[in-house]
Structures are given as C-alpha cells and as structure tokens.
Design brief:
Length: about 950
Amino acid sequence: MAETMDPLAPSVNESSFTPSLINKLRMRFGSGSATPRSMAEGYVEFGEFRAQAPGVKKVGTFAGVFCPVVLSMFSALIFIRMGYLVGNAGTLVTLAQFALAYGIVGFTVMSICAISTNGAVEGGGVYFMISRTLGPEFGGAIGTLFFFANVVSSALCISACTEALVENFGPNGYLVGDSPGLPNGDWYRFLYRSVLNTIGLSVSLAGASLFARTSLAIWVTMVVCLASAFLSFFITTPAMIEKPETNTLTNATSFKYTGFSVNTFYENLYPKYGRDYSTNDGEMVDFASVFGVLFTGVTGVMAGANMSGELKSPSRSIPLGTLTALFFTALSYIALTFLTAATCSRDLLQNNYVYLLPINVWSPFIAVGMLTATFSAGLSNLIGASRVLEALAKDNIFGFILRPMVPRSGNPILAVIMSWFLVQIGIITGSLNAIAQVNSVLFITSYFAINLACLGLDLASAPNFRPTFKHFSWLTSLIGLVGCAALIFGLRPAYASAVALACCSLVVALHLLSPAASEPKWGSLSQALIFHQVRKYLLLLDPRREHVKFWRPQMLLLISSPRQAAPLIDFVNDQKKGGLFVVGHVRVGELDGSGDPLASEHKYWLKLIDHLKVKAFVELSLAESIRSGAAQLTRLAGLGAMKPDTVLLGFRDTATPKDFFRDPTSPYKTEQFDLDSGEIIFPARTSVSTRISASEYVRIITDVLSVKKNICLCRNFHTLDMAAVERRSSSLKYIDVWLVELLTPSREEAFSVRALFALQLAAVVRSARGWQHLRLRVHVVDATPLYADLYLAELDSMDSAVERSNPSLSPARPVHERLEVLLKLLRINATTHTVSEWPALDNFGQWSETSYDNGTTFSRIPQSYLQKVNQIIKSRCEDGAAVTFVQLPHPPKLAPHASDADEPVCEQYLQVLEDFTKDLSPTILVRGLKSVTSTAL
C-alpha cells in the first residue's frame, strides 16, 4: 500500500501514441518530423496499414497470384501423372477424387480469403495468417510444418522435372530417338535434380520479384503447351505407343492409343489398380496412393499467399487470383480426364505416364510444358519456403536458432540457402509418388489450421474481424476443417498421426521455450475465445445458487510491496485450492487529468505474477486513503459470482521488512524490477514511521467484516521457507489449528462457524502440492468460558456448520471425542489435542458489551495472560509447525467517523494481537463469518 506516485508514468507528449507507433515514426523519419514531400513519395507502414515504399517494385494479381498458383497446381500432375490417375482409378473415381480435393481446397480458399481480407498480410503468407490468428505457439508449429511442406513440394517438383528430362532426353528419349542422350541411373538422376535445384537457388537469390515477373511468360508457355495437348486428342490418329525406357515391369513394348472410342471410355470408367513402374519394386497402387498424387495438383493454392510480401495489394490479389486460378485448373483437369479416358487404353495409361508426349502433334510442346511447369512449381515452392522461414525468424519464434535468417535488407539469402539445402536432402528419395504422399499430408495439415483459424475468428465474434470477402461462414470453415481431418486420417493414418504428434510437440515446446510465446505481439485467437466463453459461463454462474458443498477459497490479498511479501503471495497461491486469487494494491492519489498513474505500473505487477509463478489476478486501486482503496477492492474485486469472500492482510508490526528480490539467499531473487536509472519497482517500507496508522488498519478489518467477508491477518511469513516445507526430511512436520477464542476460551468454540472456517483453510493448505506430507493438528481447550452466557448467546446467533441434533456431538461428551467425530464427518484427516494448561482469566475483570463497544476490553487484558497463551502456542510450534492458524478476536467497535480517540484503542487491540502471536511460526489470525464445511453428500 505504497503512498508515492508512480515515477514511471508516461509523459504527456507521448501518452497518446503507442510505443510501436512512436518507434516506427522514429525509424522511418528519424528524430525529426516527416515533410510533406517525403510523405508524398511513397507510403509507410503504421500498425496494420502496409504500403509501398519508394523504389520497391511490387507485383499485381495476375503475375503475383494467378500465374504462380496455376503453375504450382499444375506442377507434376498435368503433364506427367494424369495417366497414372485415370489408368488406375478410372474416370469416375478420378473425378470423385478431384471433387473431394477441390471441395476441401475450395472451403480452405474461402477461409484464406476471409483472413487475408481482414487486415494487412505481410511476408510468410499462410504462416502469417495462422500465427496472427492462433498465436505464436500454434502458428509457429503450423508454420514450421508448412515450411517443410513447401520444401517437400519443391523436392517433388524437381523430381518430376528430372523425370521429364530423362523421358525426353535420356536413352531412347522421345526427343533424342535412338541417340544415346543423357545417361540414366540413380546417381545421374540425383545429379540432374541437384543441378535443377541449384538453378532454382540462383533464381531465388536474384529475388522473388524476378520470378513473379517472369511467371507470366512461363504461364503463357505452359498454356500453349496445354492447348497443344488438348488439340492433339482431336488430331492424332490411332497408333501403337511404345513404352518408356524407364518402365521395366512389363515385357510388352507398345500400347494402343485408340482415339475417341466409346469402348475405350467405358473400359476406363471404373478403377482397376495396377503396379507403379516408377518405383524401384513396382509397388501396388491403391485408392490412397492415387489420391496422394492427385492432391499434389491442388496444393499449389497457397502459392499466391506465400508471395504476399511481394504483392501490391495482398488483401485484394490473394482472393481474386486464387479463386480464378482454382476455377481455371479445375476446368483443365476435368477436360483432360475426359479426353484421356476416351482416347487412351488402360494399358497405355498404366505403363506410360508421359503418354501426352508421343500422341502430341509436336512432342517438344509437351516436353517444354513438362519442364517449365515442374521447374517453375519447384521454384515457387522454394521461394515460398524461404519466405516462411524468414517470417519465423523475424517473429523470433525459435529465438537464436533462426536469428541469422533475418535479412538485414532485401532478399533473405540465408533463408533461401537453408531451404535449398533441405530440398537437396529431400530429392535423395527420388520417387515422385513416394514424395507426393508426404507432401499431401503436410499440406492437408496446413489447410486444417487455416480452417481452424477462420472458424475460431468467426465463433469468437471479435468486433475487428470484418473481412471484405463475404462468401464464407463458420459452416464453410467447419466443413473444411472436418474434411481435412477425416481425409488425412482416413487415407494415411500413420502419416497423419506422425504429423499430429509433431505438431502437438512443437506447440508444447514453443509454449515453454519460445521467446515469442511470452510476448505475442500479434494477439491470439485463444484469448478471444476464452473471453467469449468465460463471459458466457460467468453469466451462468449465478451467486444465488451457490451451495456450501462446492465452496472453494476466493482470496483477496492486500499487500503494500511484493518485495517484502513474496513468501506470503506464494503461500496464498497454495491456499486457494483452485479458487479465485486476487493480489490487490492501493495507491494513494487521485486522477488529475494527465492520465492513469497506475497504467505503467500494472505491467510490472503482471511480470511479478509470472516471476512468482502464481495463478492470480491483479487489481490496483487509486484512492484518497488506503482504507477507502481497500474498501473499493473488497467490494468490487472480481466479477459476478467470481468475487473474493476472504480478505488477507499483512500484519502491522515493527519488524524490519526484508527485500526478497535482493536477498542473495532468497528463492525469489530477481533484478527485473531494478531499473537502470537506479529506481526500483515496488519499494519496500524502510521504517516503522512509514506504516499506516493503527486506526486505519483496524478500520480496514472492521470494513471487511461489515460487508460479511472473512478476514485473515498474516504474520511472520517472512520466515516461511517453502523449500523446507516441501522437503520431507526437514523439521517441519505439522500444520497447527487452534480452535480457541482468545477472550472467551471454551470447548464449544471448536464447533462454531468461525472455528470451522479456520479448520477448512488449514485442510485446504494441507491438500496443496508440497504440503500433503505434513500432518494436521487441531488444538482445543476443555474449559467453560468465564462468561458462558454471553458466549453461548453469540454462538447461538451464528449458523452452525453441523447439526446440533447429532447425538455424537452432544456437549455432554468430552470435547476431544466430539471433535474426532466432527473431523470424520468432515472427512478431514487430523489429530486432536486438548490443552489443559490454558490460563484462566481470573484477573480480567467484569466483561460487558459496554466495555467491548468502547474498546476498554483490550486495555484490561493482563499481560501475563497473553504471555502465557503465547508460550503455550509457541511450545507446540517448536515441535515443527510450518504454519499456525489461530482465532482473531473481534476488533473494537469504533465510531462511524474517524477521530483522535480511535488511535489508542486500536493500538491496544493490535498490541494484544502482537503479544498473542509473538515469535510464533508463520501465523494466520482468522475470523470467518461464513459456513464453508458440509457433512452432506
């Protein structure tokens, strides 16, 4: 409850700007202001507004999205694997698989378009969308998988390009005829793939914008080649087509091209799976393997999003270009499927995957199409992988591991080289069809994450989720989500399980180790969803329906400085038992129109919660006095039914405060609250004179009781050693509870609500981790109070926590027997101890309500009585009590308004408490008002 104003409050000049905005202004324009001329030359990036700086060339929708998406989707499928699909799966299954693949991709594209039109999309494409939606942990995990998906896809396309190269220019190749051509073999193929990969590296190092601008020319070339293929079906006459040199599974040398034939179309209508001659051992083809290859023809849909950092207007270009490309490729695949099924025999399709070459009117057209489509798709994926890796590095997802990947300016050279190296490892596999299976699983996982992100955004109903793309809903995202999950686990359960395990492991690892996890600068969808659900459940949590059976501690701990209260905060965290824990602090002051003086301090309190590793909320109050601030927190802390019912205060004594943040032997030692300027956060009290007055402290206690909340005063917790508590071999063995009222000691006190509240708190502490090996001891006295009538009248006025009609709890029975029965009914494992040496109050004098009301009671308690009681409790504490719970005497009744007469009365009350608890183990003085125990089922 410090009384000084915050020295770290923001200055007036910068209070209206966010730090990120100020930093960006300074970085862009230096210390001076921007001139109108500099503003007119180009656009700058403020917050979510991205723009084009002078001299930086960006690409448009057609060249930047449509062409890369079409080239990536066609890749190896359009010219090299259509025969594999139709020849094995047949026309109907092939069309069904295309419908399934495009259905999933279509719903995913709707999600991509929704997210990409909801704000500025920067480099990293899909990773950027997922991470800015699902947070750094999940986004980093999916981004990593998406990076590897691009790497594998690039390896697949390079393998396909090599296959096209060998089929055309290898031994007996279609373009070299009987001449030797390029040598063939596993090592030669690896050499060709390495050369192609290195050429891709060279182009990537030259810059992605170069590729984006040349993609238009590549697309035109490929369209011409594809058009020649379509025309050839109508022009080429029936003929026998020789098998390729790479097919060693069959002894046949040629297969029939029939031209348009109803019989051929009917023959190819249904599936008839054969063997894959492109694999070393001729593996048997099945539905899953065909779909794995087919799905590579739709994975390129992300190519446009990957180029987001190179686009003039990503939010416009990505939806328009991607949807148009999707429609164009779908028509091409469907047309090619029908033309192939109607003209080519099944033997030709199963034994010659490059059947388009020999039936074309001019074979070089198809050869050029094969090479350009596959190489450009591999290059696109290589560039996409490097941009995802660059984005992961810039976001500090993996800390120092990827820090070298952050480019100082321009092209991310190291990220490109790393991507190239991993692609080089991937091409060792060689088999296009084998790579395709892994490629499909990784991309489906990425699609799953995109749909999940969009579904979460829509369900969270965040006001800032206002995408300009309207052709989506939570239903389309859900269908895409379920479709991806069902597809991946239905077709490749082993691969799917491995990817799911890898993703979950990455999420956990990033949550624990990633530097970005503690500073999610882009926000996390989980927070929006949590808010949405918590609000809903808080409304359902009706305080009128609370039942004692399900009571749990809801604690408000008011502290002055965490530096001297760290062990107490740690202890209360153990005491809450899954309940609410609020750390409250009062600052004396008032609003003066210059801003909130507590705003800059609040972030340090959140860091404190992280440092102490406690599950607590922070509430700060600004008030004219500490008492009024404490009253505000007592009344207003929490929300709905989640409001504290127990208030804890540190003890007002003369002990010198200990700075646990600077003590080298303290487990709470830290320097993060010591500023470079020499100032410290949370300054501790340095002298007795800085304490709040006795009357204000007592009035805080009275205020808490007056609003029907339980009160706990905590003393000597600076001596609490949690390491010793948790160590089973230490001398600390017990948790002590004294069910004795100081002024009116009686055996009936053990059965009152206030006593059972203390017993319940002790039982809760013992159930916490680290305390479970301690034993619970309950101490009572076997005595009748000096003024029994007054005591019993007070006892009867309270709601009993157990039924008095229970015969086993009859007052006629010995107190320890009754207490043991009560403990069994309450399922509390504890030992009972009857204190027979409790001193009598013979010299206490006549006690009456009048003397209690005017505060004279505490001035007439003999010092010898307090010392004797203190010695009795201390003797039990020395047996190994880790913490002690005792009853708090009711504070004196004071006048409604403070006066000078309050101070001596309150001083006397606090002196009684100090003498009563002097030199004890960590002690909690408890006064409970609510029934919190239940014997009912």
